[in-house]
Design a protein that fits this description.
Elements (H helix, E strand, L loop, with lengths): L16 H25 L15 H26 L5 H7 L2 H30 L5 H26 L18 H25 L8 H12 L4 H16 L9 H24 L4 H8 L15 E2 L9 E2 L13
Antiparallel strand pairs: 1-2
Helix pairs in contact: 1-2, 1-9, 2-4, 2-9, 4-5, 4-6, 4-9, 5-6, 6-7, 6-8, 8-9
Pfam families: Fung_rhodopsin
InterPro entries: Rhodopsin_dom_fungi
Organism: Lentithecium fluviatile CBS 122367
Length: about 325
């Protein structure tokens, strides 16, 4: 099949496989550096000694997300060697069994990575506000994400006929694009809700307006996940719209999907780590007042607005303040 009948590629190559490898590893490295920055922010400033009490479940989940992303990236890289980015006819001659198996596994790890990264964001939000209503809303969001993850994972795992569920290119499968559209729509909706929840906390911070705007911008970056997911859906549509027709060229068209998937996955991880980058941590350190909140980030807490330095008390980074100071 000639390349002029295939869908246009993000990469200006007749065989964009090598470009896919470069793109996915760049995305992975960027996400990894952000996770490392989040972990290092929790270290005491005087010496780089790890104190386990400084870390929480959201930190463990963030590390879990990057581990899952590592596996997903390796699988896609191996899929390139199996024919991703090549013309369908050329890949078919080499055999699609390995290609299908690698692509199928990478889809499952994409689902798990995004779900864990999203859960990290919810847990972070739950440590910021004590309001019963607020926490109830976040718990409901977490339950929704858990249910979505289960449906998403099982739907992806069993998208094709029994005994050949991994055979998503030539196998008999459900309407895959409709399934991905439904699942990714919920993905985007939950990110909108989580972004709104994170931005809402800025109002209780006793910081200058300029710093509030910085924090709003930081929390709002989670919205960037939405266009990344939308682009992924676009390339999925392009790939599936000619399915089993005369111009069906999935191994070539899926190069775009692989890159968009990596971008969306990395964006989910990065968005969960951005609030812990040092400039933002510095903005929040003097922002919490016990007249506003009773459970904070565990940085320097200002007990009353306009307090002098003698009324400041420092806690270990990552600790949780359960009660007001005396």
């Amino acid at each position: 099949m000639s390349s002029d009948t295939s869908s246009p590629s993000m990469l200006p190559y007749e065989n964009p496989g090598s470009g896919v490898n470069i793109a996915i590893w760049m995305c992975f490295i960027t996400a990894s550096l952000t996770v490392i920055s989040k972990v290092l922010t929790k270290l005491p400033e005087a010496r780089a000694i790890v104190k386990y009490e400084n870390y929480h479940l959201d930190d463990a989940m963030c590390l879990c997300a990057i581990l899952l992303a590592t596996i997903q990236t390796v699988l896609v890289s191996q899929q390139v060697n199996a024919g991703l980015g090549q013309q369908y006819g050329d890949a078919k001659l080499r055999g699609l069994r390995k290609y299908d198996a690698l692509g199928f596994a990478s889809q499952l790890f994409y689902v798990l990575t995004v779900a864990v990264a999203k859960g990290t964001g919810v847990l972070f939000a739950m440590r910021l506000r004590p309001s019963r209503t607020y926490r109830l809303g976040l718990q409901t969001l977490m339950y929704t994400i858990s249910a979505w993850t289960l449906v998403f994972f099982l739907g992806t795992a069993f998208q094709c006929q029994a005994l050949n569920t991994w055979k998503y290119i030539d196998g008999k499968c459900q309407d895959q694009f409709a399934f991905w559209t439904a699942m990714e729509s919920v993905n985007m909706l939950t990110d909108v809700v989580l972004t709104a929840a994170l931005i809402s906390i800025v109002g209780v911070l006793s910081v200058p307006l300029s710093k509030k705007l910085i924090l709003v911008f930081a929390f709002a970056t989670r919205i960037l996940i939405i266009p990344a997911v939308a682009v992924r859906l676009h390339y999925l549509r392009v790939m599936y719209q000619t399915q089993h027709g005369p111009h069906w060229n999935p191994t070539f068209a899926e190069a775009n999907v692989a890159i968009a998937t990596s971008v969306a996955m990395s964006a989910a991880i990065i968005a969960s780590c951005i609030p812990f980058l040092k400039p933002l941590v510095d903005s929040m350190q003097v922002g919490w007042s016990n007249s506003d909140v009773r459970q904070g980030l565990g940085f320097t807490v200002l007990y009353s607005k306009g307090s002098s330095a003698s009324k400041l008390r420092s806690f270990s980074k990552g600790s949780v303040i359960l009660n007001s100071a005396n």
